[in-house]
Amino acid sequence: EVQLVESGGGLVQTGGSLTLSCEASGFTFSAWTMTWVRQAPGKGLEWVSTLSNGGVTTTYVDSVKGRFTISRDDAKNTLYLQMSSLKSDDTAVYYCANFHGSGSYWGQGTKVTVSS
Asked: What is the number of other CB atoms lying within 10 angstroms of the CB of residue 55?
């Protein structure tokens, strides 16, 4: 059974930092491109960042470029999202996801609240 379990969310002040983790199981983590997606209160899903298998290619939504860093530890089957210089607009539930040809897998999400 595929499982993606996010952790690391919480309450942080504007300008602060947090690192999110996503522990994967039930599939060959190292072989897959992984993605972070977020959903702000009352808004739709927003793609945040994607990291290719092997960690070769990273992409980010413009609003987080220079502030967020996606990474992975294939030995630990874990995806990370280091977030710094956090803004109130970053307040959201953050999900890690694996998109593949026949569908997608999602974690349950971890909530990040940035207060001013």
From this structure: 14
